[in-house]
Amino acid sequence: MKTLQEIIDANPEAETFRFGDSKKLCDSILALIRSGKKTATCEALLVYGKGGDEMPEVGRRDVALEWDGRPAVMLETVEVTTRRFGDMDEDFVAAQGEFRDLEHWRQGYEAYFRRNGGFDPEMELMCERFRVVEDFGGHDV
């Protein structure tokens, strides 16, 4: 099993991050990624930039971590777009793999954004599509 340091040494451009804002949500999202049901994600655009996270870039490979900080999967970004919360569509929601429909997505993400810095129906989102390059948990990709 590779250590996080070995992975970063081999991929110095890689960012590391956790999905969600709790162990339960992180575990659930990683399971969806490993099953192939989740190939997209989004986040509030304001978390990127000065003093924040690096914006995903097409072709860059980043490491999603388990909640405890162990490397989970390496993801390669295949598309990055931005859109307003209110402009989300069913196709992107389906690619996220977690939601029954657009309304279920709106409810889940509004609650998530309210827990993590605030919600505005006009807020801009970073929308990313990705593919799994490597699963560090020993799961076949």
Task: Give a verbal description of the structure.
The protein has four helices and five strands; from the N terminus they run αβαβββααβ. By secondary structure, it is of the alpha+beta class. A five-stranded mixed sheet has the order 1-3-4-5-2. The longest helix is centred in the C-terminal third of the chain and has 14 residues. The radius of gyration is 15 Å and the shape is globular.
CATH class call: Alpha Beta
Beta-strand percentage? Answer: 25-35%
- DSSP E strands, number: 5
Q: Describe the global form.
A: globular
Radius of gyration: 15 Å
Which fold name is given in CATH as the topology? Sulfate adenylyltransferase
Order of helices and strands: HEHEEEHHE
Distance between the termini: 15 Å
Q: Which ranges are low-confidence, i.e. pLDDT below 50, for 5 or more consecutive residues?
A: none
Largest sheet: 5 strands, mixed
Structural class based on helices, strands and sheet pairing: alpha+beta
> At the fourth CATH level, what is the homologous superfamily?
Sulfate adenylyltransferase
* Widest beta sheet: strand line-up: 1-3-4-5-2
- CATH architectural group: Roll
Q: How many DSSP helices?
A: 4
